[in-house]
Amino acid sequence: MGQLYILIALAIGLLLPLQVGINAELAERLSNPIAASFFSFVVGTIGLMICWLVSRDPWPDLNTVA
């Protein structure tokens, strides 16, 4: 199982340059790097929320979060 996690981490690491290129292209097309960063952040947040909902993990207790 540990080898699977290593392969996943390696694959994600190899995709980082792709993300940099996407962000640069988005900033150029929007003519605003702040808007591009915000858009990228929102899309990433939505993606994480979908992963969280699919995993069916319970909502964390607020006392634990604080």
UniProtKB/TrEMBL annotation:
Entry keyword set: Membrane, Transmembrane, Transmembrane helix
Alphabetical list of InterPro entries matching this protein: YdcZ (IPR006750)
Any Pfam family matching the protein: DMT_YdcZ
Keyword Ribosomal protein (UniProt): no
GO cellular component labels: plasma membrane
Membrane spanning residue stretches: 34-54
Protein's recorded name: EamA domain-containing protein
Source organism: marine metagenome
Classification lineage: unclassified sequences, metagenomes, ecological metagenomes
